[in-house]
Amino acid sequence: MTPEQEERIELLAEKLIAEALTEEETQELQELVTSNEDAALIFSEYMQGHAMLSLDADHLPNSSQLELREPKKFSWSWLVAAAAALVLSFVITELRAPKILETFAKIESSDFANWGECTLPTAVGGELGAGKLQINEGLATLVFKSGAKVTIEGPATFEIIDSMQTRLHSGIVVSDIPESAHGFTIYTPTATAVDHGTRFLTQVTDNGETTVLDVLEGEVELIHDNKSERFKTGQIAKASSEGFEKDGDLRHELYITERDIKPLSTNLLRVSTSYGEGRDGTAHDFDPEFHFNAGDIMIKHSDKYLRKGFAGFDLKFLETSKVKDVKLNFNLVFSGYGSVALTQRSKFSVYGIIDDSQDEWPQGHIVLSKSPAYKEGLNSIDLNKARKVGEFEISRGEITANRNLSSPELTELIRHDKNKFITLVFICETPAINQNTGALIYSIAGKLHPTAQAPALQIELTE
Amino acid sequence: MSKDSTEDYLKLLAEHEYAIRVYIITMIPRLSDADDIMQEVRLIMWKKFGTFELGSNFKAWALQIAYYRIMDFRRRKGRENKKLIFTDEFYDAVEQASKKLNPEDSDKRQSLLNCVGKLQDQHKKIIFLRYKERVSIEEISEKIGRTVTATYRVISRIRASLKKCINTTEKAR
Asked: Of A122, A249, B101, B141, which has the maximum CB count within 10 A?
């Protein structure tokens, strides 16, 4: 392997990561990597470096203050400098506001939307990059940069890939596609709908096994099982493991109202931290009254003003072996402390305490060193006493939001808890910018919060 | 699943999750796709944990499940885009090679971060923009005043120098 070949593999790998390989380059990389073991190793090591940097991105040295341009080694003539200044004055506003992620769409409006697990901001006007949106009920309308307009009807899970490609995991979306966005594509678990100028409804039901397409106006192509068919105004089609069904016999209103949701039943319980012995609080190791809200569960990643949040749920009435599924629901609220402008998109982890001896802790103030699963070291947690049960993100500027979190780990934690008291720990994994001065303290409403609801476990039981 | 095996599962998962995620991203570099695959892998491992023999190699078992999910994912993608990007042979070669690397070695993780810290300011900032702030190559090229092609070259060279730094640190240990 020559140094030139090695360099070439690394350059192509970087382009692969940026999704910028041409067809010829793809072919070239394919041939290089399969040519010999060394080449495969160089490529894998490069990609592994990408993986490690991506996973440890939050721990990279903060370099936002560093200079990006190298010092000029030669001087511009006045004329060139003046021309450059003129050009620069047009682009300077762009440069001043660094774009954090490439965005493809915007939330134009939302009507009574109750959001579920989302990896994207949910505020109206929010700029959306690639990621998932889950809406439990209500409507949200997205406008894509391509001009496509999509209304999501809850309950639904919808994913943005880019400004021309989306994926509907479940639920209903109605798309209005102008000429500029012809070719706009909605992937579903069983089919692909490609627009050819229209307004159409797409529905995914039966746990993703069936896709229904209803052409309200215009023409849509539906691809299923390597077969492609076009449908026109008034036509309806269904793609499932049984193949394609189409035309008039499917066209009755029931199609749209047959939903996956089950009615709320007695098998669903909601237990908040206000119930029984339930409690919530904040752990830190400085003056207890300093920047403290009794009604909040406060969280901050800072070496001097670290705060961990705690929520405890009393489940002594519960037959835990009957627990089928659990969802943690909580409300983000404004703590009033710190500047929102000094925050960045932040990642949070939720841990469940598995050592029942750790379940004794007071409402409100908790001494950090006596807090459940405490371990020395900034933001550490003792993994012999706690297990991670989930994570979530808060976007920059996002202050109030309702969040849901569920995972097999959370369900199992509850199914196997012996003393039937569940302690959850909230930790912010992303260090705050200016962490010891003005950075925002994140808050979740606790049981003493004056307006917002306390954290709750929504527990589904088997029959 | 009993409480004991739940604990075994969670403990093993916590121990190897990082390596599994690195393995997936090595083959599927788009992070949102890799996250989806990881989610599937966790569910499958969870369901099949009963068949896992305690004491045998959890990581190897997990990577095998991950490999099948990756292959399934790229076939699904291939159907969507009506073509496969790379052949099976390509993925086999990468999978064989990546098994020789041990990303979960905590010294290696730490060396990577230390080596980033040792980069010259401009390069440090480029890595920060690319990975932490996820700025596109096009925008970085605008900011550093170079062409897009030159920017790819700059980044791949920074990455090569990081690799060299990590290898030197490892040898020195």
From this structure: A122
Cis peptide leading into residue A155 (ω within 30°) = yes
Question: What's the gap between Cα A310 and its chain centre?
Answer: 22
- CATH code reported for the domain at B3-98: 1.10.1740.10
Residue A158, pLDDT > 50, answer: yes
CB contact under 8 A, B97 and A68: no
Residues in B touching A190 (Cβ below 8 Å): none
**Length of chain A counted residue by residue:** 463
**Burial group, residue A264, by CB count within 10 angstroms (0-12, 13-18, 19+):** exposed
Size of interface A-B (CB pairs under 8 A): 185
Report in angstroms the alpha-carbon separations of B81 from A160, A226, B84: 16, 11, 8
Mutate to test the interface with B, among A22, A29, A42, A68 (most CBs of B within 10 A): A68
Model confidence pLDDT, tens digit, residues A393-436 = 888 778 788 888 989 999 999 999 999 999 999 999 988 776 66
Question: Looking at residue A455, what is its pLDDT?
Answer: 94
Q: Where are the domains of chain B?
A: 3-98, 106-172
Identify the pLDDT of residue A91: 45
A291-319 per-position pLDDT tens digit = 889 899 999 988 888 999 999 999 988 88
- Spelled out in words, what is the top-level CATH class assigned to the domain A268-461? mainly beta
Structure tokens at B82: 């009506």
Q: Give the pLDDT score at A354.
A: 94
Q: How far apart are alpha carbons A408 and A457 in whole angstroms?
A: 14
Q: Which of residues 4-23 of B touch A (CB under 8 A)?
A: 6-7, 10, 14, 18, 21-23
Arithmetic mean of pLDDT over chain B: 86
Would B3-98 and B106-172 be classified into the same CATH topology? no
B124 touches chain A (CB under 8 A): yes
Check CB contact under 8 Å for B122 and A44. Answer: no
Domain A105-257 has CATH 2.60.120.1440: yes
Chain B residue numbers with beta carbons less than 8 Å from the beta carbon of A226 are: 79
pLDDT band at A96 (very low <50, low <70, confident <90, very high): very low
pLDDT of residue B144 exceeding 60, the answer is yes
Contact assignment for A41 to B109 by CB distance below 8 Å: no
Provide the CA A51 distance to its chain's centre, in angstroms.
Answer: 19
Instruction: Look at residue A186 and tell me whether its pLDDT is greater than 90.
Output: yes
Render pLDDT for A231-267 as a digit per residue (tens, 0 to 9): 888 778 888 877 777 755 554 444 544 443 344 456 7
Choose from B11, B25, B87 for mutation: most chain A CBs within 10 A: B25
- pLDDT at residue A260 in the model: 39
Q: Residue B117 and residue A61: Cβ atoms within 8 Å? A: yes
ipTM topping 0.95: no
Predicted confidence band at B84 (pLDDT cuts at 50, 70, 90)? low
For residue A295, the distance in angstroms to the closest alpha carbon of chain B comes to 33
